[in-house]
Amino acid sequence: MLRATFVKTAISLTAITAFTVPIAHAEIKLTASDAAMSDVFGQTLDISSNLAIVGAYGNDDHGPESGSAYIFDTTTGNQVRKLTASDAAAGDNFGYSVGISGNLAIVGAHGEDYNGPESGSAYIFDMNQKGKQVHKLTATEVGADDDNFGFSVGISGSTAIIGAPQNNDHGSNSGSAYLFNANTGNEIAKLTASDAAASDKFGNVVAISGNTAIVGAPGNNDHGAFSGSAYLFDTTTESEIAKLTASDAAGLDFFGSSVAISNGIAIVGAPNNGDNGAGSGSAYLFDATTGNEITKLTASDAAAGAQFGYSVGISNGLAIVSAIHNQNNGLFTGAAYIFDINTGLEVAKLTASDGAQSDQFGAFVGIDGYTAIVGANWDDDHGNSSGSAYLYTVPEPASLALLSLGTLLLIKRRK
To answer: Could you list the residue range(s) of the whole structural domain that residue 294 is in?
Structure first.
């Protein structure tokens, strides 16, 4: 009988760092085929396998800020589809939030007036049907003006989550989030925080992976004004699993301004944390099963005002964290950082090869497997704030590389 035996080996952080592989793949820059001034393409984005979706809520095809979203092949960088709503209208802000999982894409339009001004809506599109719109989603309980349903969206498999941060169920702007079956378009549940309060902005950001969802509430005041929090939910039972706050939480950190989740690990950004100067920023990893904090991440070149943690993503043992005001070559162009989540070590720093002052590279980030995507919504290639996004191939986590090496050596010894 073959029996697996692992030999305990002392490995130093220096040794782990030695296995870090630098970025070797040239970036692919994405812009819309009909890019125009003020489209803010790259304000939001997501990636799943070989497809990426990028929102451009400022696109004017159906009136000022009616909005659009674009699908790209991440292998070639080619644009595959342009998505707009079947009932698009001025001010809808379609594309302010986007998500993609497999063949299904979701796009939020928080400015849509379905049931009152800016009550909001979201749309499901099927890539297997040439990007056909298959559902328009609205919440049964969203009726008030300015609920902003669709301000944030996420999707995993057949379950979608949609944030409405200005819902007033538990006080002005206490916020809520909604689960939908993306195949049928039916609402599953409405989520609110167990300790919901006015101005929490629960639902400002959302994410989902498998049967676990995470919802940010950057306005929560548990540890001072706008210290922030996030909440984990079981999407099967619709119950709250845990409330997340930082171990060193402080007022004005805005913890919960960005969230992501994958394979039982959640990441939460606190872009105004002041460890390395006011607004230098940080991000935190949590066990999504227990809610326990695992580690705190900061940039190797952290500096005041960089806002590290502005956007976050996580996949396959890697985390990506942006710092939209990071300074490079004397310019505030922005940056994104890759971390090995098993060690907490920074693996790489990403910057745009053509980065310019105030491009806001890092306005939104995503990662799937070893492909990362970074938005730069104020890039000016096609007019002021026309926007762009960048694809990168990122290195395998050092910890996994070591594990793979150890497994190969073990197999070789057995032969």
So the answer is: 22-395
Cα angle value 199/322/357 (rounded, 5°): 105
Residue 406 lies in a domain: no
Cβ 64 vs Cβ 91: under 8 Å:
yes
Of 297, 295, 292, nearest to 347 by C-alpha is: 297
What confidence tens digit (pLDDT) does each residue in 224-267 have? 999 999 999 999 999 999 999 999 999 999 999 999 999 999 99
Q: Are 109 and 96 in contact (CB under 8 A)?
A: yes
Residue 159 β-bridge partners = 156, 181
CATH (domain of 312): 2.130.10.130
Give the CA count within 13 Å in the CB-facing half-sphere of 130. 0
Q: Check: CB of residue 139 under 8 Å from CB of residue 190.
A: yes
Under a CB-based contact definition with an 8 Å cutoff, are residues 276 and 304 in contact?
A: yes
Distances (CA, A) of 284 to 85, 86, 159, 305: 36, 39, 25, 18
Report how far residue 45's alpha carbon sits from residue 376's, in angstroms, rounded to the nearest whole number. Answer: 10
